[in-house]
Amino acid sequence: MNEIKQIDNSKFLMIDSDFIEENLRFAKVNKLDNFLISARIGNYKLKDINFLIDYPQIEKLYISVYEYIDYQIINSLQNLHTLSIDVLANDNQKIDFSNFPKLEKLSFDWRLKEENLDNVRTLRYLTIGKFKKKDLTYLSKLNKIESLGIFQSQIKSLNGINELTNLKKLCIVLCPKLSKLDGISACENLEELIIANAKNINDINELSKLKKLRKIRIESCGNIEIPINKTILEKIELVGATAFI
Question: Which architecture, in CATH terms, is 124-245?
Answer without folding.
Answer: Alpha-Beta Horseshoe (3.80)
